Amino acid sequence: MAAMDDMMPVMTRAIERTAGLVRAVRQEQFGNSTPCAKFDVKDLINHLEWVAEMFESLGRKGPMTEQGPYAGDFPERAERMLAVWSRPEAWEGTSPAMGLPMNALAHMYLVDMVVHGWDLARATGQDYEPDPEALSRAFHFTEQMVEMGRQRGAFGPPVAVPDDAPQFDRLLGMIGRDPAWTP
């Protein structure tokens, strides 16, 4: 199955990078602000936990899940999500809960990992360089989906970024992040 074989290594690398950032966060950094205005660091990690749990459910053609309290287990949840998506049937058809093709959901998750990895790194002073293939896919998918993303509240108003800026900066600007953000 082309979509799965193609995307699983990219998703895995993106998740591993973000999980590494999460593992390096110190408790005293939980209250730090992030480039995502509605989240401090702890809220952002909690969001990552919820998204991993939700995409695990969606990968089983299950329902959207409600966000629970912070649990401190994002890397483990991400591993379970990857296990579900490593089954060919996860990639077939459309999500009953979201009404979108499963391949589109995989790309949504990838965008989340790439962007929130940057959010977390910026907020906690860690280095972050997205996987080049993950960045390329996230950028091209977001270009196609950005208007729907804004309508659904997933993305903010665009931030102006020069046309010749690096692709990652243009991705951040497209979804409403300022690439120059610092705490």
Can you tell me the overall shape? globular
Number of domains: 1
* Total number of strands: 0
> What is the terminal separation in angstroms?
43 Å
* Name of the CATH architecture: Up-down Bundle
Corresponding CATH superfamily: dinb family like domain
Examine the coordinates and then state which fold CATH places here, giving the name of the CATH topology. Answer: Four Helix Bundle (Hemerythrin (Met), subunit A)
Mean pLDDT: 95
* Share of β-strand residues: under 5%
SSE order = HHHHHH
Discrete helix count:
6
Can you walk me through this structure?
This protein is an all-alpha fold. It has a single domain (2-174), classed as Four Helix Bundle (Hemerythrin (Met), subunit A) (Up-down Bundle), CATH 1.20.120.450. Helix content is 57%, strand content 0%. It has helices spanning 2-24, 41-59, 74-85, 102-124, 132-151, 167-174. The protein is globular, with a radius of gyration of 16 Å. The N and C termini lie far apart (43 Å). The model has no long low-confidence stretch (mean pLDDT 95).
Give descriptors for this structure.
globular, single chain, 183 residues, 57% helix, Four Helix Bundle (Hemerythrin (Met), subunit A), 6 helices, mainly alpha
